[in-house]
Amino acid sequence: MMELMRLDVQKFVDSFEREISALGPKYESGHLESHFGLNPTFLAAGNVFYFVTLAVLYLIMRNRAPLQLTNFMRAYNLSCVILAGAVCYGIIMNCIRYGFISYYGNGERMDARTEGGKHLLCFIWLYYIQKFWEFLDSFIFILRHKWNQLSFLHVYHHSSITIISFAYICLSGSGDVALGAFINSFIHVLMYSHYFLTTFKWSACLVAPVWYEHTGLHSGESLRKAKKKDTLVLVTALADTVVSLSMVEKHLQVKNLRMARPETLTETLGLQGGAVTSLGLINDKEHRVHVYFDRAMIAAGKVNDILVHPTSGNDITLAISAPALLSYVASCGHTAHLMDFDTGDVVDA
């Protein structure tokens, strides 16, 4: 079985090498036009640049506040709409001028020595080069701390689509690529139009525009109580932050911080069971609760609002900026401890 797999892999490698070696004659004969970036060197360098930039941006941004990139995102999303729209337009015009039926399996439709092939290749090249431009999707996620969107599938898609597009154009070279490029570009017109509109907090809708609900930083809050001491701790952090209670215990010099009982929550903060919110600190007249905020959340909250629940329950979400939240906590007579849950460092607000 392993021997058969090795043979299959070797056949693939040999076939790929033959196709790559045939690129030179294709360019020399005029079958392919030497458009910018349409070569293996640019393809490899582009993907190396993508992964290196991802790593560098991550190292730079992981301990910094997220950036506000609204205007840049508007320009970027609009540029993607225009580029993808141009590809759709070019392929449609190619169909009208030179006929649609002759696309499938027809190598002449991508032959730059023919008028139709030269026209089609120009727009398929634009489709290919746009895939490198769309690397900015990933970079924007990092700069804005959208870690949940920077998934393996996202990175795999952006790196592999350049290789697939290159292979279709240079190694396959038939008109079949036009259909895939058109469908993908049409979807991208819709997708980036939606992204563009959401920067204005508008949703793309076929009937009428509708206002988006306010978006912000999702937080998680819990009230903890030490097992052998009457110490209460309110911990608030970003929803995807791994909260280390041992760091809080070390700072307070207590042990075994456990989830407080619902009756303790009601007695201390005037809240219903399961509806923990820092806004309930106004009811802690005796200042029994120690307040710990995720330092990364507070830093991010200077750019994007933090989403919290009101004291009435979990059926409503409020948006509040980090400075306003800290001011509220101080007005309730509490000191907010800002903890870095990576290092355990604590500073008072």
Automatic annotation (TrEMBL):
Belongs to the ELO family. InterPro entries: ELO_CS (IPR030457), ELO_fam (IPR002076), YbaK/aa-tRNA-synt-asso_dom_sf (IPR036754), YbaK/aa-tRNA-synth-assoc-dom (IPR007214). GO terms for biological process: fatty acid elongation, monounsaturated fatty acid; fatty acid elongation, polyunsaturated fatty acid; fatty acid elongation, saturated fatty acid; sphingolipid biosynthetic process; very long-chain fatty acid biosynthetic process. The lineage of its organism: Eukaryota, Choanoflagellata, Craspedida, Salpingoecidae, Salpingoeca. Its EC number is 2.3.1.-. The chain crosses the membrane at residues 42-61, 81-100, 120-143. It is found in: Membrane. Gene3D superfamilies: YbaK/aminoacyl-tRNA synthetase-associated domain. Keywords: Fatty acid biosynthesis, Fatty acid metabolism, Lipid biosynthesis, Lipid metabolism, Membrane, Transferase, Transmembrane, Transmembrane helix. This is Elongation of fatty acids protein. It is an enzyme of class 2 (transferase). PANTHER family: ELONGATION OF VERY LONG CHAIN FATTY ACIDS PROTEIN, FATTY ACID ACYL TRANSFERASE-RELATED. Residues 228-300 form the YbaK/aminoacyl-tRNA synthetase-associated domain. One of its GO terms (molecular function) is aminoacyl-tRNA deacylase activity. It is a multi-pass membrane protein. One of its GO terms (cellular component) is endoplasmic reticulum membrane. It comes from Salpingoeca rosetta (strain ATCC 50818 / BSB-021). It comes from the Eukaryota. It catalyses: an acyl-CoA + malonyl-CoA + H(+) = a 3-oxoacyl-CoA + CO2 + CoA.
